[in-house]
Amino acid sequence: FQSVQMLDSRQARLPRELVDAYVEAWAHGTTADVVDLFADEIEFQLATQYITNRPVLAWYVEYWKAGGGQLALVHCDPDLGNTIRCDLDFSHDCDPWFDLGALHLNTKFTIRQGKIQKAIATMSPADFLALSEVIEGMFAWAGANMQEDWAEAYASGDPGARGRADVQACVGYGQALRAGTPAP
């Protein structure tokens, strides 16, 4: 009888509380802290990345954390039952090398049984195009200027190694652009 009366603390969490915990885990927690906020069956989308399981989400979070990825909460609408829409800004160690600034993400969270079941983030078409152009140039630059390091990081399967290699590539590409060296 007593266990029926006790409410699981995860079930008591409101959508806004879970969004705050999500942002806090990105800022000060581990990959496991971020992933543990999600249900077993998930939908996570950021731009073209669509993830439906926790192990892949863990790889993705580890990759972005290795590159200095940070989320900032800008604004949230009021909770609507088990959903909430929030504006998040995502920054990365590559940001200082390009004029993109933080990426603004319009994110809708769906909460089930005290866990995030869905986090669908979109960005404006203009931001997506600008980001795509930078990534395309960075990949071309890395392929021409750091083939061995790049290939080793990508072949390792280690998301941290790949994230660090991508930061090295974007810094190198950014420096080349500032020096007036065209991308390959």
What does this protein structure show overall?
It is a single chain. The chain has 184 residues and is of the alpha+beta class. Helix content is 49%, strand content 26%. The protein has eight helices and six strands, in the order ααααββαββββααα. The chain has helices at 2-5, 9-12, 15-28, 31-35, 54-66, 125-145, 147-156, 159-178, and strands spanning 38-46, 49-53, 70-76, 83-91, 103-112, 115-122. A six-stranded mixed beta sheet has the order 2-1-6-5-4-3, covered by helices on one side. A hairpin with a 6-residue loop joins β3 and β4 (83-91). α5 packs across α8, α6 crosses α8 and α7 runs antiparallel to α8. The radius of gyration is 19 Å and the shape is globular. The termini are far apart. Mean pLDDT is 87; it is low at 1-10.
